[in-house]
Design a protein that fits this description.
By secondary structure, the protein is an alpha+beta fold. It starts with a helix and ends in an 11-residue tail after the last strand. The protein is elongated. It is built from six helices and ten strands; from the N terminus they run H-E-E-E-E-E-E-E-E-H-H-H-H-H-E-E. The chain has two domains: 106 residues, N-terminal domain of MutM-like DNA repair proteins; 123 residues, Orthogonal Bundle (Helicase, Ruva Protein, domain 3), CATH 1.10.8. The strands form three sheets. A four-stranded antiparallel β-sheet has the order 1-6-7-5, with no helix packed on it.
C-alpha cells in the first residue's frame, strides 16, 4: 500500500497534467466515466494515502489499497486500468485501486492538519488525539489515519524502532517525552522516506522493516501481526521498551 510520501511523489510526477482538458476516459470502474469527459484538471492534491484530482464542481479520490499502482504517460501492457484519463498533455492510468467522486469542497472534507506530509500538519493536534485514547496501542496509533494521515506500515515499524518503543505499548503509558518523539518522528521519518524514495534507495535505509537482525544490538528481531490492525510489526525486544498502564 503506497504511504503518504509515495502519494506526494505521484502528485509531483503528474503535475504537468494540471490544466489539461480530459478528452478520453476509459477503465473498468463502475463510476460514471462520462462525468469526467471534457473536465479540466484544476489541481492535484493529496491527503495521507488519498490522491485527489480536483475539478471545478467535484473531485476524484483515488486510494491504492494494498496492491494499486499507476502509470503516467504510459500503460501497463496487457492490464486494463481501473481508470484512465487522457488529454493533450498526457495520460494518467490507475490500476487495482478504489476511485470515487467527492462532491463537497475538499477543504470541508479533509483536515489537512492531520496529514504528516502537509504544511498544515499540527503536532499538537496529534498529541491531543493520542491523549484522548490512552489505551490505544502504539502500533495502532501510528496507523490511525485520523491522527497520522499518510503513515503506513513501513513508517510505523521504523518510527517505533527509532524511538525505542515496543509496538504493543499503550500511548497513555508512554512518558511525555517519548510520546512527543512518537509524534515528531512520524513526520521526520516520512520526509526521510520521501527523500530516499526519490533517490531510489528507500529499502537500503530500512532498519527493522522486513529485517531479521537488530542493527543496534545484534539480537534476532521479532515479527508478527499485532494490534487491532493486524499489520505485521518488526521489532527488537531488547531495544524497544514495553510501556503498559498496568
Amino acid at each position: 500500500m503506497p504511504e503518504g510520501p509515495s502519494i506526494v511523489i505521484l502528485r509531483e510526477q503528474a503535475a504537468h497534467l494540471v490544466g489539461m482538458r480530459i478528452d478520453a476516459v476509459e477503465g473498468n470502474t463502475r463510476l460514471d466515466k462520462g462525468r469526467l469527459e471534457g473536465q479540466r484538471i484544476l489541481a492535484l492534491r493529496s491527503w495521507g494515502k488519498h490522491f485527489l484530482v480536483e475539478f471545478r464542481a467535484f473531485s476524484l479520490r483515488v486510494h491504492f489499497l494494498l496492491f494499486g499502482t499507476y502509470r503516467i504517460d504510459e500503460r501497463r501492457e496487457g492490464v486494463t486500468p481501473r481508470l484512465s484519463l487522457r488529454g493533450k498533455r498526457g495520460e494518467l492510468n490507475l490500476y487495482a485501486c478504489s476511485v470515487r467522486y467527492i462532491d463537497a469542497p475538499l477543504d470541508s472534507v479533509y483536515d489537512w492538519r492531520s496529514d504528516v506530509m502537509a504544511d498544515a500538519w499540527d503536532p499538537r493536534l496529534a498529541l491531543r488525539k493520542l491523549r484522548a485514547h490512552p489505551g490505544l496501542l502504539a502500533c495502532d496509533a501510528l496507523l490511525d489515519q485520523e491522527i497520522f494521515a499518510g503513515v503506513g506500515n513501513i513508517i510505523k515499524n521504523e518510527v517505533l524502532f527509532r524511538i525505542r518503543v515496543h509496538p504493543l505499548s499503550e500511548v497513555g503509558a508512554l512518558p511525555a517525552r517519548r510520546l512527543g518523539r512518537l509524534v515528531r518522528e512520524s513526520r521526520n521519518y516520512s520526509f526521510d522516506f520521501l527523500a530516499w524514495k526519490r533517490a531510489f534507495v528507500l529499502k537500503k535505509h530500512w532498519l527493522v522493516h522486513t529485517r531479521s537482525i537488530c542493527p543496534r544490538c545484534g539480537s534476532e528481531l521479532e515479527n508478527g501481526k499485532l494490534g487491532r490492525t493486524q499489520r505485521r510489526s518488526f521489532f527488537c525486544l531488547r531495544c524497544q521498551d514495553l510501556w503498559r498502564s498496568s
